[in-house]
Design goal:
Chain B: Pfam families: Rnf-Nqr. Chain B: Keywords: Cell membrane, Electron transport, Membrane, Translocase, Transmembrane, Transmembrane helix, Transport. Chain B: The complex is composed of six subunits: RnfA, RnfB, RnfC, RnfD, RnfE and RnfG. Chain B: It is found in: Cell membrane; Endomembrane system. The complex is a heterodimer. Chain A is α+β, with helices and mostly antiparallel strands. Chain A is built from three helices and seven strands; from the N terminus they run αββββββαβα. In chain A, strands 1, 2, 3, 4, 5, 6 and 7 form a seven-stranded antiparallel sheet that branches. Chain A is elongated, with a radius of gyration of 22 Å. The termini of chain A are far apart. Chain B is mostly helical. Chain B has one domain. Chain B is built from eight helices and two strands. Chain B is globular. Classes of the chains: A alpha+beta, B mainly alpha. Chains A and B meet through α1 of A and α4 of B.
Chain lengths: ~180, ~200
């Protein structure tokens, strides 16, 4: 009996010291981590809308599930310096090797561009979805296009599935953009 | 001094954690696609190994024998979380490309093995040299592996192009089978060398 209490006390003490140290480290790293997140979001939006002046989140659309496993995490409304407005969708969609996390921009009736934030596609093949060569074909692409690889989208050699999931995600989110986000507000 | 040097040196080749002891291979295969990732992983791993070995060695006389594993785990998991947080805060690109493999240092068997087999029984100074030697040995193995994989698999070294534009990299080298092939060659060469020497 006395042993159990002694052991419990020792473990508790170790746990308290451990969590105390972690809490201290967390207290000065967490504002930095938050800043880094905001910075990468801002940079991403800047890459899609180089004219960006301000952006704000439309909280009504946070965490919206679309069909085919596509999930819209956040929607940002972007105001450009020339007065025009665009929308950036922070979305998750299934790829070949797992979920692909990306920012997709739309303006009027075109796709303004896409950035891949995180992915688990095959290195050397599907991972090429992050390259400029692949991504630039979506810049200023009319949303009336079919977005089908080997038709109007140049697919990555040996990575048809990855190419298809990116293209169809842009198309699917475009529908959501046209019907809900832009039409609704 | 001689004894310390011996503890340091054994980690480099004779008891190299990756090439001879062959523990913690999962993360070695996964992150050794580029030299930059390999260096980042080495730094993270070394920090965890050195701090948890030192902590355990420092308090080894206070740890009741049957409670040692949970206490080791607090030390290991704690230092891993510190690495994870610091990397996220100050080096987000590295943290992104290493991804899940930083938190997974917790379950890297080599850390627990060193703490249990070495740090728990030896004085701080000897432990420090053991941890340093193991870290450098880990670094040698993973960086050598990553160098070959990056050069042959992507045609670059530390992000700089080494082959002319027309070079077509061998994609398989970047996949796990490629890592196994190269690792196998290293192990064979090292074991052959050690075998001949003794």
């Amino acid at each position: 009996m006395r042993d159990i209490i002694k052991n419990a006390l020792i473990i508790t003490l170790v746990a308290i010291i451990g969590s105390g140290i972690l809490g201290w480290v967390y207290s000065f790293t967490s504002p930095e981590i938050q800043k880094q997140k905001e910075r990468s979001l801002r940079e991403g939006i800047k890459t899609i809308f180089s004219n960006e002046e301000t952006f704000k989140e439309l909280e009504d659309f946070r965490d919206t599930e679309l069909s085919d496993g596509i999930k819209v995490l956040n929607v940002y409304k972007v105001k450009n310096k020339d007065g025009s407005e665009g929308y950036v969708f922070h979305a998750l969609f299934p790829g070949y090797g797992g979920k692909i996390e990306s920012l997709i921009g739309y303006e009027d009736d075109v796709c303004s561009g896409i950035i891949i934030l995180e992915h688990a596609e095959t290195p050397g093949l599907g991972a090429k979805i992050t390259t400029d060569e692949f991504r630039k074909q979506f810049v200023n692409k009319p949303l009336s296009d079919p977005f089908v690889p080997k038709k109007d989208v140049v697919a990555i050699t040996g990575a048809t599935v990855s190419s298809r999931s990116v293209s169809s995600a842009i198309k699917k989110i475009a529908e959501f953009y046209r019907e809900e986000v832009k039409g609704g507000k | 001094m001689e004894e310390l040097w011996k503890e340091f040196k054994k980690g480099l080749f004779l008891q190299n954690p990756v090439l001879i002891l062959m523990v913690g291979l999962c993360s070695v295969l996964a992150v050794s696609t580029t030299v930059e990732n390999a260096i980042g992983m080495t730094l993270g791993f070394s920090f965890v190994l050195i701090t948890s070995e030192l902590i355990v060695s420092a308090i080894r006389k206070l740890i009741p024998n049957h409670l040692r594993i949970p206490i080791f785990l607090v030390a290991i998991a704690g230092s891993t979380t510190v690495v994870d947080l610091v990397m996220k805060a100050y080096s987000p690109t590295l943290s992104k490309s290493l991804g899940i493999f930083i938190p997974l240092i917790v379950v890297n068997c080599i850390v627990l093995a060193r703490v249990e087999a070495f740090a728990y029984k030896k004085s701080i100074l000897v432990t420090l040299f053991d941890a340093l030697g193991m870290s450098v040995g880990y670094g040698i193995a993973i960086i050598a592996l990553a160098a070959v994989r990056e050069i042959l698999g992507s045609g670059t070294f530390l992000g700089y192009r080494v082959f002319p534009q027309g070079f077509k990299p061998a994609g398989i080298i970047l996949l796990p089978p490629g890592a196994f092939i190269i690792l196998g060659i290293y192990i064979a060469v090292l074991r052959g060398y050690i075998g001949r020497k003794s």
